[in-house]
Design goal:
- The complex is a heterodimer of chains A (about 350) and B (about 130).
- Chain A has about 350 residues and is an alpha+beta fold.
- Chain A is built from eleven helices and 13 strands.
- Chain A has helices at about 10-15, 20-35, 60-65, 75-80, 85-90, 140-170, 175-205, 205-235, 245-255, 260-265, 280-300; strands at about 5, 40-45, 50-55, 75, 95-100, 110-120, 125-130, 240-245, 265-270, 275-280, 305-310, 320-325, 335-345.
- Chain A has a five-stranded antiparallel β-sheet with strand order 3-2-7-6-5. A four-stranded mixed β-sheet of chain A has the order 9-11-12-13.
- Chain A is elongated, with a radius of gyration of 25 Å.
- Chain B has about 130 residues and is of the alpha/beta class.
- Helix content of chain B is about 40%, strand content about 20%.
- Chain B has helices spanning about 25-35, 50-55, 75-85, 100-105, 120-134; strands spanning about 15-20, 40-45, 60-65, 90-95, 110-115.
- In chain B, helix 4 (about 100-105) links the parallel strand 4 and strand 5.
- The chains are: A alpha+beta (about 350), B alpha/beta (about 130).
Chain lengths: ~350, ~130
């Protein structure tokens, strides 16, 4: 199959530059390849311009005389016409091309499905596609492809957490470093499930495969949400005050600290969390609530309880978070204590 | 061993057996789905204490344990197993910690898995554990 391509030296530089994405995508490319089973196929990874970065597939499709374009080939739609790499980039979303819908003649026996990849800020950084040499496209391959795309995006987010955690550890914030491990944990089950789904897809059993993919997708969504919170906690940025739900922040922090509390043998109780809207910088509030809860968990370690509540103050001017520590019975020198954080209430019409 | 703490497949004689110890049900069930498809017998334990009770009734198994768990962490569980059963069980540590290799070495685990991992990684480390056992 013919496509325009970079020189060998340019390709080498491209692959070095995109090493993080190639490495993040490798297990998902392997899963896509496995899911295609015995059909001739190729899973391809491209960068944001449509340059091929990696190809995994059967020997004939990757190395045969009619092999799919390899690393360095340019498959941007404006040059390569409609194809599984260029079209999802041009359309900024999932695309499927069946047989002659492809511009490149060599793809006419293939069904190609592709989806763009986004970095943690939402910018398109690449594309993943699967090409299978059959014209009846499989819905389960589509679901696995979309889940794999989300998995790669989650891996890119995980790589970003690795960078953040170095800064956090430099500041001796061990609680936040431990929390990063808990956030990663939420991703682990999703990764295994997607792998199992890919193996099952090759053997048939579509309903179980799709159920596994859906479970994996939910795990990836949970990971992305908690990773986003973790990055806000690790950040020292301060934004402009906006209206936020204080009770929502408290619930998010409590959810993130579930394992931390269980490991310290502390019951984290959310009695009396009332809906309260405040005006403040969301990240600052998140960090304040997190720090108060971590300190309370430390003080209650070994069998104590931490009660967290939210309510407006008596004057109706501020929203208050209370973090009450009830140490374990029999701990020498430990006494109950209350930490309060307060922020201006949001006025109607603000 | 109760239905809540353990899930075993049908008895197929010499099937390879793994005890998966993790307080996260999602992790246990995903690993069970992966390994049962590869003809492993999987016994799930939600805590170190449950794992110790299960191991008292077994002769051979690979123990795949999480590190960060309430009540008893993976390091303490490993030490307890060695104290009670010598080297009867092969131990594998799994953790999302960044320094997995150092953590495993510090607590006497020759085999380890960094989370997240794929099915290939999981099978490779368990096969290694079985080879070491023989």
């Amino acid at each position: 199959m013919k496509a325009e391509a970079l020189s060998a030296a340019e390709t080498e530089r491209l692959l070095a530059r995109e090493a993080t994405m190639i490495s993040a995508a490798r297990p998902y490319m392997a899963a896509l390849s496995r899911a295609a089973g015995s059909d001739r196929h190729a899973a391809m990874l491209g960068d944001a311009r449509g340059l091929v970065l990696d190809v995994v597939g059967d020997r004939e499709s990757v190395h045969g005389p009619e092999a799919v374009p390899g690393p360095g080939a340019l498959l941007a739609e404006e040059l390569g016409g409609a194809n599984g790499i260029g079209t999802p980039l041009a359309e900024r979303g999932y695309a499927e091309l069946v047989g002659p819908e492809h511009f490149i003649g060599g793809f006419h026996a293939f069904t190609c499905q592709g989806a763009p990849l986004h970095d943690p800020s939402g910018a398109i950084v690449g594309v993943i596609s699967t090409s299978v040499r059959r014209l009846d496209a499989s819905a389960r391959l589509r679901e696995i492809l979309l889940c794999a795309a989300n998995g790669i995006e989650a891996e890119l987010l995980r790589a970003r957490l690795e960078e953040d955690v170095r800064r956090v550890l430099a500041g001796s914030n061990e609680a936040l470093a431990r929390l990063r491990d808990d956030v990663i944990q939420s991703f682990a089950a999703a990764r295994v499930r997607l792998d199992v789904a890919a193996r099952r897809a090759a053997l048939g059993g579509p309903s179980y495969t799709l159920a596994l993919v859906a479970e994996a997708q939910r795990g990836i969504d949970r990971f992305r949400a908690s990773a986003r919170l973790w990055r806000d906690l690790a950040s020292d940025e301060v934004g402009a005050p906006t209206g936020i739900a204080l009770d929502g922040t408290v619930r998010e922090v409590a959810d993130l600290l579930r394992t931390e509390a269980a490991t310290a043998r502390v019951e984290l109780a959310l009695g009396g969390v009332e809906p309260v809207r405040i005006v403040a910088d969301g990240r600052t509030v998140l960090r304040d609530v997190f720090a108060a809860c971590v300190s309370a968990i430390d003080a209650a370690a070994g069998g104590g309880t931490v009660h967290v509540w939210t309510r407006p103050d008596r004057a109706g001017a501020r929203g208050v978070v209370g973090v009450e520590t009830e140490p374990a019975l029999g701990v020498a020198g430990a006494a109950p204590r209350v930490a309060r954080l307060s922020y201006p209430l949001e006025r109607q019409g603000e | 061993m109760t239905a809540e703490t353990a899930r075993t497949g049908p008895d197929r004689g010499a099937r390879r057996r793994v005890v998966v110890v993790d307080d996260d049900e999602d992790i246990r069930s995903s690993i069970a789905a992966a390994l049962e498809a590869e003809d492993w017998e999987v016994v799930e334990a939600p805590s170190g204490a449950a794992a110790l009770a299960i191991l008292d009734g077994l002769e051979r198994a690979v123990v795949l344990t999480d590190y960060r768990m309430p009540d008893m962490d993976g390091a303490r569980l490993g030490a307890e197993i060695r104290a009670r059963h010598d080297d009867a069980f092969r131990l594998v540590l799994m953790t999302a910690a960044r320094d997995v290799e150092a953590l495993a070495a510090r607590h006497g685990f020759a085999l380890y898995l960094g989370k997240p991992f794929g099915v290939e990684d999981l099978l490779a480390v368990l096969e290694q554990a079985v080879r070491d056992e023989q």
